[in-house]
Design a protein that fits this description.
globular; mainly beta; seven-stranded mixed sheet; homodimer; 7 strands; 160 residues; DNA-binding; 3 helices
DNA sequence: TAGACGTAGA
DNA sequence: TCTACGTCTA
């Protein structure tokens, strides 16, 4: 797929298979897998409601328990990245979209990792469901959102 | 040219002609025309001395008198871009390299402009010489560097 | 206009 | 580690 779709897709993107690898975030944008070039949460307005369509877990945040079939994703905002002037994360934008997606729609997960040579690789890891979300206090004492994500394929294999 | 050169070139880049157009800064990096993906001044260490090799004039700074064959380029630093906490620009990095290049080596000039549809275009505008530089005070009262750049081709045509 | 798990180079 | 005339979307 070399042409930007322009339309936001929930679920699998045609032509993209689990395990497909990419080097740059902009590639994810071009094929419509994850549009923000920096943001970790992609979402859209569906029937007047924000729903999450994909997330990138690159390890940029000091998150999370990552297993092969589940992960805990940290919400955005609150200056968690730059660590300057930390604030409570708000239930808006991507965080709101993930909350609205709980137990509802599939969310594409892209896992990013750092290579030995210093470059990065992004791997499409398939569809997940946001099982639940909660707030907790980070090391700085401010509130952050956490989203429990579980792989959907396993459920499908059981005969969904 | 699809392979990153890796080596820093002073003067014309083989295969790139004056007037060649590009859409993204990363393209300039790939062909070795201008390596920084954001920075306006590219430079290298040549014999222990920093020399400028190329600049991008996108209008990001509130510069400059731009004619077809000359322009006045504003130095970098001092928070001129984001306008927060302005400071005096320092004679270091790109600014130092441009200063060292005065009346010395050719500098590639790429002109950026905003398209009607909101996208950008970068046009390679050929080789220029840094005629002179000076400091002046910006609207915020802080010192900024200015570099007078004149097109080199005209001189060549006269039989340099 | 502002926010975002970017990217390359010094 | 930090700077930089980025780039996309809301």
């Amino acid at each position: 797929v070399f042409v930007k779709s322009g339309k936001q897709i929930i679920g699998a993107v045609p032509g993209v298979d689990v395990g497909d690898k990419f080097q740059y975030r902009v590639e994810l944008n071009i094929i419509g897998l994850h549009r923000p070039t920096q943001g970790g949460i992609d979402y859209g307005n569906f029937g007047g409601k924000l729903l999450a369509t994909s997330i990138v877990a690159s390890g940029g945040y000091a998150d999370d328990v990552h297993n092969k079939n589940s992960l805990i994703y940290t919400g955005q905002g609150g200056n968690v990245m730059n660590r300057k002037d930390p604030e409570d994360q708000k239930l808006e934008r991507g965080n709101l979209a993930l909350k609205n997606s709980v137990q509802k729609n599939p969310v594409r997960v892209i896992r990013g990792s750092n290579m030995l040579n210093g470059s990065r690789t992004y791997v499409y890891d398939g569809l997940y469901l946001v099982e639940k979300y909660w707030q907790e206090r980070g090391p700085h004492g401010k509130l952050v959102f956490k989203f429990q994500m579980n792989r959907l394929e396993d459920i499908n294999l059981l005969g969904n």
